[in-house]
Amino acid sequence: EFNEARRVFDEIPQRDVVAWTGMISGYTTCGRHSEAWVTFCEMKKEDVELTAYPISSVLKACKGMRSCFCGGMVHGLAVKCGVTHSIYVENALMDMYATCSGDMDDACKEEMELNPFTLSITIRACSTIASHIFGQQIHASVIKHGFESNLPVGNSLVDMYCRCSRLSEAYRYFHELPDRDLITWNTMIAGFEKSGSDLSLQLFSQLCSEDLCPNCFTFTSVAASCANLAALTCGQQIHGGIIRRGLESNFALTNALLDMYAKCGSIAESHRIFSEMPWKDVISWTSMMNAYGSHGYGKEAIGLFYEMVHSGVKPDRIVFMGVISACSHAGLVDEGLKYFNSMDIDYSVKPNQEIYGCVVDLLGRAGRLLEAYELTISMPFEPDEMVWGALLGACREHKNSTLGQLAAQKILNMRPSGAETYVTISNMYAVDGRWGEFAEMRKLMRGAGDKKVAGRSWIEVRNQVCSFVVGEKVGPNIELVYNELKTLVQQMKDVGYVPDSDCFIHDFEAVV
Question: What was the pLDDT predicted at 500?
C-alpha cells in the first residue's frame, strides 16, 4: 500500500513536519533509503521546520545507503537546528557513524580523493563514536595530504581529541595550529572544563590577551569551570565581563551563572539571578533546587518544586533527582520518599538507576540501612555500581561492615580493579578491629593491579586557582597557599568541624 500512501501524502495541501516525518520513516522502514533521502531534501526545500524526528529518521536512511557524506550533512543540520542533544538524534548519529566507519576506513586505505569538507565530516564521525584511534588515522591523512593549515579541519581535530578524552593531544595540536580562531579557543576551553581542569581558566586569560572577543559559548564554559572549582572571585570577574559585553540576557549564560554562584556558596546571588529571570526553563528550576539542596535548604527546594509545577513546567528525572537529593541533605527522609513514590503515579516519570541511587543515599544517610538494602535488591533492573556505591558509603558512615562487605563485593564483581572499593571496606574492617580481614583486603587490592586515584584539591588565592594532591608543591605561591589553608582549617574548627579519623588513619597503604 506504499504507493497509495504516497498519493495521499502528495494530495495534502499543507504538509506539516509530522506528515513529512511519516513519509520519510515509511520509506526507511521499507528499505527504500534513497527515496527517503529525496523526500527529506524536498522537505528542506519547502522550509519545513526541522525537528529531532525527521532528522533521526533520515539518518537511518543515510545508514542504509552507507553514506557518511549525506549523514555528515544531516549532522550539520542537526547542530544548526539545536537538536543534537535529543536522545533520538544521538542514537541515530552513533548508529549511522558506526555503520559507515568501515566505509570511511576503506576510503582511507584506497587513497580516495580527500578535501577539507569530507575530512571534517569524517573527523566529526570519530568524535561522535569516540574513536580516537580512527581519528589519529584521519589526522595522519590530514598531514599527508597537506591540510594541516586548514582551520575548519584543525578545529575538527581539536574537538575530536577533546571528545575522545585525549586532552594532552588536543592541547598539543592546539598549540601546533598555525592559525586559531574563536572556535578553536572555545573548543579547547570547553574540553578542559568538561575534564574539571583549571587550565580552562588559564586558557581564557590567554584568549583575552589575544585580538579575539569571547562570546556566549566562551563565557558559558568558563562560568562552568568556576563552578567546578568553586572559584568565586574568578566567577565574579567573569560575570563582570559578561555584563560589560552586554551578554547578560543570554539564557544559557544566565543558567550558567546561577549554577556557578550556587556551587561557590553564594546562594543569595543565585536566588537574585533566578528571581530576575524573565522566564525559566527546567534547567533554571533544577539549578536553583540543587543550589538549595546542596546547602541544606531542603524545605526551600521543596517549595520551589511546587512553584515550578504550578508554573506549568513538567518535572523530569533530573528534577526529581534534585528534589530527592535536597531532602537527603536536609534529613527530610519521608518527604523524599513521597516524591520518589509520586514520580510514576503523578507525573509518569519512570525512576532510573540514578534515581534509585538517590533514594538509597536518602535512606542510608538517615541510618535506615536495611530499607536501603531492600530497595536495592527490589529494583526492577539490576543495580549498577553507583547504587551499590551509595549503599557502601552509607555502611561506612554508620559502621556496618557486614552489609558493607556485601555491597563492596557487588561492586568488585562489576569492576574488580576498583581500588577505592578495597580501601573503603578495608578501612571499615580496621575500625572494627578485624585486622586479619583488613590485611586480606589490602592483599587483594595489590593483586588487582590498580591504585586509588589521588584526590586533587584546589584553592583560590589572590584570584588564582591552585590545584594539588597530597605532598605536591604548588609553585612559587606555596607559602600563600599554606597560609590560606591554615586559615580555612581554623575557620572550619571554629564552626564545629571535627576530622573523621576513621577515614584517614588507615589510608596510608592506599598508595602502595
Answer: 63
The whole domain housing 472 covers 459-504
Centre a 10 Å sphere on the Cβ of residue 464 and count the other Cβ atoms it contains. 18
Task: Kindly indicate the confidence band of residue 346, based on its pLDDT and cuts at 50, 70 and 90.
Answer: very high
What confidence tens digit (pLDDT) does each residue in 448-495 have? Answer: 655 555 666 767 776 677 777 666 666 666 777 778 888 888 888 888
The DSSP annotation for 323-371 comes to: HHHHHHHHT-HHHHHHHHHHHHHHH-----HHHHHHHHHHHHHTT-HHH
pLDDT of residue 381 exceeding 50: yes
Query: Residue 71 class from Cβ within 10 Å (0-12 exposed, 13-18 middle, 19+ buried)?
Result: buried
DSSP 42: H
Which of 230, 262, 260 is CA-nearest to residue 242?
260
The CA-to-CA distance between both ends of the chain, in Å, stands at 70
**Is there a single domain that holds both residue 479 and residue 396?**
no
pLDDT in tens, 87-138: 888 888 877 877 776 555 555 554 445 677 767 767 776 766 666 777 788 8
CA 357/CA 349 separation, integer angstroms = 16
pLDDT of 417 strictly over 50: yes
Provide the domain count of the chain: 3
- Which of 213, 244, 276 terminates a domain? The answer is 276
Q: Specify if 149 maps to a domain.
A: no
DSSP-H helix ranges across 177-215: 182-195, 199-209
260 is a domain residue = yes
Whole-angstrom Cα distance, residue 157 to residue 170?
8
Q: 272-281 contacts: CB < 8 A, separation 24 or more?
A: 280/308, 280/311, 280/313, 281/251, 281/255, 281/313
Q: Are residues 446 and 463 both part of a single domain? A: no
Domain shared by 246 and 206, yes or no: yes
How many CB atoms are closer than 10 A to CB 180?
19
Q: Is 190 left (phi over 0), alpha (psi -120 to 50) or beta?
A: alpha
pLDDT of residue 443: 79
What CATH number has the domain bearing residue 375? 1.25.40.10
Is residue 1 situated within a structural domain? Answer: no
Q: Is residue 380 part of a domain?
A: yes
Q: What does the alpha-carbon distance between residue 446 and residue 512 come to, in Å, rounded to a whole number?
A: 8
pLDDT of residue 512: 35
Alpha helices in 12-115 (DSSP H): 17-29, 33-45, 52-65, 68-81, 87-109
- Say what percent of the chain tops pLDDT 90: 47
